[in-house]
């Protein structure tokens, strides 16, 4: 997959020099015509000026560092060098010839975490604004080294000025659904730091397992850290493995991980979930729940009704005790207290919770959740800490000092910023690395969703429409790694890299410097660095990507692969693509119902997953669509075009085609450009009650000549099929220019049904008119 690297020419001068010098090591004196290495850095720095002089690093080069922090950074450089060459450099307090000189506190740009890096002929200077800046300068220097072992270490001359765009650059890991060793967590942190990310969000407690040792509550270790069995396959299959599962981190391990992170300028933010996702803790201490149990540590994924009782003061005392031990282990300013996905079913019925509401004058259970979070916030504030919570903490009123993590789309982040609260953006469409990264048939099972590297890379953390002042509350973003479908460390790496590499650039680099094609070119080099770290990264970035566009007469499909030397072949007759078939040259115009199958070949060998996309052909293709209101959260394909692009959403809803409305109705009007005979109207409706996607109360189609006066031509009220319901209505003698679809959301999910009490999702895709 990789081109021959440009480092090769660096070999020659040194080989000659070795011969001449009788096998002594190369030194800077033999530079002569110094070779020019290529600068290929991820994340892209603010400014890079390449200069003519190169620096030759050899065994005599000295690393100069004076502060303990800089000596630590120097040690990390040596660790990389040793892996690459087998030797380390001497770390000294002085030196200016054949030296790499670290200084902290002298970055002329004065940006927090910023640095300058100058590579001259016989000296390299890294000036960090602070210890983190110097550390990031070292990370950049590492990326200026060749990637092939055995290369002569010519470092290309450069003048770099760099600092981050956002102060919060995060990566999360759920160790509740699956447990990962402390050693793996350290590797995860090391990789994060290598990408100039600075926050590790450690999701430590879940329904399916409590993973942090709390000395005052031994049953958290004995009971809550274990479950009877785990799900296998997808949640929808409801299959179990029958094998006990468990694990937790001792406090000693946690201290070790935190120290390891600190050395890499990474803050570890622990998350202790409340009031929901707490079934494991309730199992260990049933008095913490509303019903008193008995409970069982979760074996299914999903959301559970049993949560901490908000009427019981013992709940708060327990959580305060837990947080006391947590704060002693984690020096972070922020403690994450969860707050997401807490059904209020038990609180509605619990006498203690009802009494609390009455005593405190709380008007509903959402206000009770707000009371819960605010009470915990007060405690943490009294200890000098601040809280972060998932965006549900907005419901019922935000705690005064809370930072909001916006995960159900951007709306929570927008609302919090408008209320002048700090925000971390983690919208699912871009930031959930448990989503699929390819639509290939051979992908390992994932939760759903579709978030390829290109989509991560396209993410803009500042939501559109915020004022400059409101935007200043957006502190950064984070990718979340929920581990239901990641049973082991290798699988975590497969899901996280290279998507985290793309996220790192989103968070660090200036927005105007972002360029996907250029990123992929740099990534080719960068993957060698991930190889050195033995990372099991995914390679989908080189697969075919298809982009559907509107044309004057309908839609066309542009295919692209970033694989060097790769050639794309495709078919439209259902047969498998082959290098003997039709080579792709120009966008493929869709002029009938057909399936495009395409594959990239390297030297006639297929590479990666096939691109397979069926198209429907109809009168509304690429016609103008007006939506009465936009779809919600993560189920917004971005443009109404997706409703008439010839692609029908699939039942896994991982294709960014479905228009999702949470509690709301959908109304869409298609303009056919002229009054025409209309022989049929149709649309697809998804019925997937498990995840809360309910069919509408009714669907109606209306037709109009002028866009003002509409006449109903079809109505349907049952959509019984599990999965996709194809509404297809033949019409007699109907003419019109405008076709309006109205789908009425079923509203609040009724008692006894999956997701009872929540707003139902309505999923609609592809309006089909003939
Ligand atoms: C979440 O994904 N439940 C925050
Ligand atoms: Zn209760």
Describe the structure.
With 770 residues, the protein is an alpha/beta fold. The chain folds into 5 domains: 1-31; 37-162, Chitobiase/beta-hexosaminidase domain 2-like (Chitobiase, domain 2, 2-Layer Sandwich), CATH 3.30.379; 168-509, Glycosidases (TIM Barrel), CATH 3.20.20.80; 543-615, Immunoglobulin-like (Sandwich); 624-769, Jelly Rolls (Sandwich), CATH 2.60.120. The protein is 24% helix and 28% strand. The strands form 10 sheets. It has an 8-stranded parallel β-barrel with strand order 10-11-18-19-20-21-22-25, surrounded by 5 helices. It has a 7-stranded mixed β-sheet with strand order 1-9-6-7-5-3-4, covered by helices on one side. Strands 33, 34, 35, 36, 37, 38 and 39 form a 7-stranded antiparallel β-sheet that branches. Helix 2 packs parallel to helix 3 (131-144). It is globular. The protein starts with 10 loop residues before the first helix and ends with a strand. Mean pLDDT is 92; it is low at 1-33. It binds acetamide and zinc ion. Acetamide binds at residues 340-341, 390, 407. This is beta-N-acetylhexosaminidase. It comes from Chitinophaga rupis. Residues 654-746 form the F5/8 type C domain. Its EC number is 3.2.1.52. Belongs to the glycosyl hydrolase 20 family.
Fold blueprint:
Blueprint: H1 11-20, E1 47-50, E2 55-57, E3 62-64, H2 68-85, E4 90-92, E5 99-104, E6 115-119, E7 123-128, H3 131-144, E8 153-155, E9 158-162, E10 168-174, H4 182-194, E11 199-203, E12 205-206, E13 209-210, H5 219-224, E14 226-227, E15 231-232, E16 239-240, E17 245-246, H6 251-263, E18 267-274, H7 279-284, H8 313-329, E19 334-338, H9 345-349, H10 351-360, H11 365-382, E20 386-390, E21 403-406, H12 411-418, E22 423-425, H13 428-431, E23 435-436, E24 448-450, H14 453-457, H15 468-471, E25 474-479, H16 489-496, H17 499-508, H18 516-532, E26 545-550, E27 555-560, E28 567-571, E29 582-583, E30 588-590, E31 594-602, E32 605-615, E33 624-627, E34 659-662, E35 666-687, E36 698-704, E37 711-716, E38 723-744, E39 761-769
Helix pairs in contact: 2-3, 4-6, 8-11
Bound molecules: acetamide (ACM) and zinc ion.
């Amino acid at each position: 997959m990789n081109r021959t690297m440009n480092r090769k020419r660096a070999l020659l001068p040194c080989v000659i020099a070795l011969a001449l010098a009788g096998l002594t090591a190369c030194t800077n004196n033999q530079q002569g015509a110094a070779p020019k290495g290529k600068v290929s850095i991820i994340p892209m720095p603010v400014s890079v000026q390449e200069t003519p002089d190169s620096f030759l690093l050899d065994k005599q080069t000295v690393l100069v560092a004076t502060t303990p922090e800089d000596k630590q950074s120097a040690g990390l450089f040596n660790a990389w060098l040793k892996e690459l060459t087998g030797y380390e450099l001497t770390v000294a307090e002085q030196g200016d010839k054949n030296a790499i000189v670290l200084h902290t506190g002298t970055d002329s740009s004065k940006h927090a975490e910023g640095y300058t890096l100058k590579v001259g002929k016989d000296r390299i200077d890294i000036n960090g604004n602070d210890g983190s800046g110097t550390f990031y300068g070292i990370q950049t220097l590492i990326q200026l080294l060749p990637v092939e072992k055995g290369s002569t270490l010519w470092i290309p001359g450069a003048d770099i000025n760099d600092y981050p765009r956002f102060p919060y650059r995060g990566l999360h890991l759920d160790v509740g659904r699956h447990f990962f060793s402390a050693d793996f967590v350290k590797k995860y942190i090391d990789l994060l730091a290598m990408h100039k990310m600075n926050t590790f969000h450690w999701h430590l407690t879940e329904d399916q397992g409590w993973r942090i040792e709390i000395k005052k509550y031994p049953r958290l270790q004995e009971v809550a850290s274990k479950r009877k069995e785990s799900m296998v396959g997808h949640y929808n299959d409801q299959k179990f493995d029958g094998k006990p599962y468990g694990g937790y981190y001792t406090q000693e391990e946690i201290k070790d991980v935190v120290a390891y992170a600190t050395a890499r300028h990474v803050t570890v933010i622990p998350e202790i979930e409340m009031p929901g996702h707490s079934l494991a803790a309730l199992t260990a201490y049933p008095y913490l729940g509303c019903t008193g149990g008995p409970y069982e540590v979760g074996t299914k994924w999903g959301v559970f009704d049993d949560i901490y009782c908000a009427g019981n003061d013992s709940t708060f005392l327990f959580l305060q005790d837990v947080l006391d031990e947590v704060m002693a282990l984690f020096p972070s300013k922020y403690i994450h207290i969860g707050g997401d996905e807490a059904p209020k079913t038990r609180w509605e019925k619990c006498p203690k919770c009802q009494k609390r509401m009455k005593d405190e004058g709380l008007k509903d259970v959402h206000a009770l959740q707000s009371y819960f979070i605010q009470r915990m916030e007060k405690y943490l504030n009294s200890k000098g800490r601040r809280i972060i919570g998932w965006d549900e903490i907005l419901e019922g009123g935000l705690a005064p000092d809370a930072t909001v993590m916006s995960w159900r789309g951007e709306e929570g982040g927008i609302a919090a910023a408008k209320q002048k609260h700090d925000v971390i953006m983690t919208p699912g469409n871009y930031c959930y690395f448990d989503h699929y990264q390819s639509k290939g048939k051979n992908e390992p099972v994932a939760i759903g969703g579709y978030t390829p590297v290109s989509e991560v890379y396209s993410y803009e953390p500042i939501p559109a429409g915020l004022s400059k002042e409101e935007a200043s509350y957006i502190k950064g973003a984070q990718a979340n790694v929920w581990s239901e479908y990641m049973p082991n460390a290798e699988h975590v790496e497969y899901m996280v890299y290279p998507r985290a590499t793309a996220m790192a650039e989103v968070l660090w680099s200036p927005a105007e410097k972002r360029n996907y094609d250029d990123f992929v070119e740099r990534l080719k080099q960068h993957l060698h660095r991930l190889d050195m770290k033995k990372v099991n990264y995914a390679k989908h970035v080189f697969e075919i990507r298809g982009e559907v566009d509107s044309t004057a007469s309908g839609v066309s499909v542009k295919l692209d692969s970033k694989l060097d030397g790769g050639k794309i072949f495709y078919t439209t007759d259902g047969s498998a693509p082959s290098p003997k078939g039709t080579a792709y040259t120009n966008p493929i115009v869709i002029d009938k119902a057909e399936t495009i199958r395409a594959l990239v070949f390297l030297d006639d060998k297929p590479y990666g997953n096939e691109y397979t996309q069926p198209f429907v052909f109809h009168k509304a293709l690429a016609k103008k669509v007006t939506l009465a209101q936009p779809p919600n959260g993560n189920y917004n394909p971005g443009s109404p075009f997706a409703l008439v692009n010839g692609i029908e959403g699939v039942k896994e809803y991982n294709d960014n085609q479905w228009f999702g409305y949470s509690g709301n109705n959908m109304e869409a009007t298609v303009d056919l450009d002229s009054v025409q005979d209309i022989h049929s109207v149709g649309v697809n409706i998804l019925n997937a009650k498990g995840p809360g996607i309910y069919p509408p109360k009714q669907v109606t189609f209306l037709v109009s000549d002028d866009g003002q006066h509409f006449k109903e031509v079809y109505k349907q009220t049952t959509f019984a099929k599990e999965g996709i319901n194809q509404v297809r209505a033949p019409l007699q003698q109907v003419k019109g220019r405008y076709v309006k679809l109205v789908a009425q959301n079923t509203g609040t999910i009724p008692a006894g049904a999956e997701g009872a009490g929540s707003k139902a999702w309505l999923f609609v895709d592809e309006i089909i008119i003939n």
